[in-house]
Automatic annotation (TrEMBL):
Organism lineage string: Eukaryota, Viridiplantae, Streptophyta, Embryophyta, Tracheophyta
KW Membrane (keyword) present: yes
UniProt protein name: Glycosyltransferase 2-like domain-containing protein
Topology of this chain in the membrane: Multi-pass membrane protein
Residues annotated as transmembrane: 28-47, 53-74, 511-532, 544-562, 630-656, 668-686, 698-721
InterPro entries listed in its UniProt record: Cellulose_synth (IPR005150), Nucleotide-diphossugar_trans (IPR029044)
Main localization of the protein described in the UniProt heading: membrane
The species this protein was found in: Gossypium barbadense (Sea Island cotton)
UniProt binding sites for Mn(2+): K248, D272
Keywords from the named record: Cell wall biogenesis/degradation, Glycosyltransferase, Membrane, Transferase, Transmembrane, Transmembrane helix
Compartments, as annotated in UniProt: Endomembrane system
MF terms (GO), sorted A to Z: cellulose synthase (UDP-forming) activity
Amino acid sequence: MASSSSTSLPLHICHGNKLTMIINRSHAVLHSIAISFLIYYRTSFLFHQPTPIIIPWLLLFTSELILSFIWFLGRAYIWRPVYRTVFPERLPNDDKLPAIDVFICTTGPDKEPTIGVMNTLLSAMALDYPPDKLHVYLSDDGGYAITLHAMRESWSFARWWLPFCRRFGIKTRCPEAYFSRTENRDSDSENPHNFMVEREKIKEQYVLFKERVRRAGEESKFKDKGVYTASDHPSCIEKRTSQFHHFKAGAVNVLLRVSAMLSNSPYILKLDCDMYCNDPTSARQAMCFHLDPEMSPSLAFVQFPQAFRDIRENDIYDSEVRSAYTILWPGLDGLKGPVLSGTNFYIKREALCCHSIRKYIDLRELKDSFGPSNEFINSLRQDYKKPNLNDNGEASNVLLEEAKVLASCSYEDYTKWGKEVGFLYDSVAEDFLTGFVMQCKGWISAYVAPSSSSRPQFLGTSTTNLNDLLTQGIRWGSGLVDVALSRFSPLFYGSSRTSFLHSMGYAELSLFPLLYCLPLWCFATIPPLYLLNGIPLYPEVSDPYFSVFLFIFLSSLSKHLHEVVVTGKPIRKWINEQRIWMIKSVTCHLYGSLDAILKKFDLRKASFLTTNKVADDEQFKLYREGKFDFWASTIFVAPLVTVMLVNLASIVGGVYRIMFMGADWRKMFGQVLLSFYIILMNYVVIEGMVLRKDKGRIPLYVNVLSIVFSLIFLSLGSIIISI
């Protein structure tokens, strides 16, 4: 239990679930024993097998070792999960609360609609926090004129929206979400008639606001067809083709410097442009940790989960990312704190900048770290006085000019920005890397998830089609493997700087794209190929070691099912997660890992794949109906179809051998079971190939291409086996 002082009530409490810990640890022990028997079986029989199956035996054994290793790393999450409760009503008076800067990042209206971005901005402005202590910044990576115009329109509409929210105690403070609700149970008003009159007035103003932004987006002067482009434009945030801009990390670091000149708040809320503030009290909830005198000196950030408003009960794409926010993050919170997750976190400015200033005394050394701006260096000092922006005189103009210098794309040259200061640049998963390095330097973090009876603190838009899901997965996979292959690899860098279990958890996260894609490709192809040729790779059913393999298989599935059920989800959720795990492992995890490896050897430039957030009615209709949208890139769909064809052919061939050629079913049962499980879990691919006639079906040319690939693999594989 953390307390604000020895005599006052605590601002937050932390508690664990002993029964859950007992179940988790008991399962880990039993599963470890089974894995040790498997390793003994493989090693003892490895050199007693006929020559033709030594190579597949080694491949399977290597895959089993890799999966065992990644499973072992993942035990860090289940060792001591904790859950937190906050009491924002116990915070000090508003005049004693610290100021907060809000950073919102967007890439431009092509993939992130302007109205959606403005709704996020308005929800941040409407947080239940002293208005004079809240400062909102928007970074448009493309520098679009329509974004600036929409900001001005949002400011005008906010004069209506913010007083309305505060007067009537509105809980949903994102205008689009609020006015799309069918019921009006979102207010504390005691005068329903007066409230409804005001609500209609505000709704009319919101419709006019949206129309003005829409019309402006269609006007030629906002089309950005001049000399400026999304990759080459001046500041406010400057970008040039000759200067690498470091994607989102670079944009946030610019905001970090500029905000130091204008507001210099000690705490920062970072939001993605599609993640609006759904609970206006989130800032006060975060302050329950940041203002705790026992925890605050070492606390870097408070992380809230990502939740999504468009998730259906049958979440076929696992867009909810349930395991991360209900299992992994609470598990890390019981060690040294959760991962910095890109959005929805309140971070201490000192953790990003000022922890370095203590190491330097000489002004020249300070400039080598933070850049040439004297004003910015002064802002890092504890005795720095925030400028008065209401002054329209010379001082205000000087600060604005200084902010433009800080936003220039060349400001970071020959400094330690992105290396030791601010968000780090070694990976496109800048959040993951930055949070990890912070915790290796001694900082801790906290994770606050909403209770089942409370509203999510933040809500966003999820991916509702296969192409966007896997494109996003490539970016995440590439960024995580970037970290695993870098000098900050949690396996080595973290083991000496943070706790063993904590570094294990980070290592699992950084390695899982690479360490899942290799074994799953092996299991999806090697056993089926040898099943087709009548060669067993697993012990026969009567062999005691068969029960070891079966136990490990069922143990993994049942533990995953248990985690799904205890978090309140149905069995269908477990099936969806199993399917998406397989799909991602043979597609985006593979491509993301290859991308990271190529970048490591300078064979490919770093890139940032933005997820499309423009709504597509046809795609969302398929998602709502629980149907996969296979109208995706061929590099995603062709591997899925090829794997299914290989397993279908092998199971048909294997059963034929057993029934008509006298093959011993007891020796082949393990491979038959594996292929059957792959087919059963991914039956939606067969539906897309054969049964469906809608727009989301698998295109004919992809089916033909996959048939060719599968025939080549099975033919060449069979020839090699027979040699």
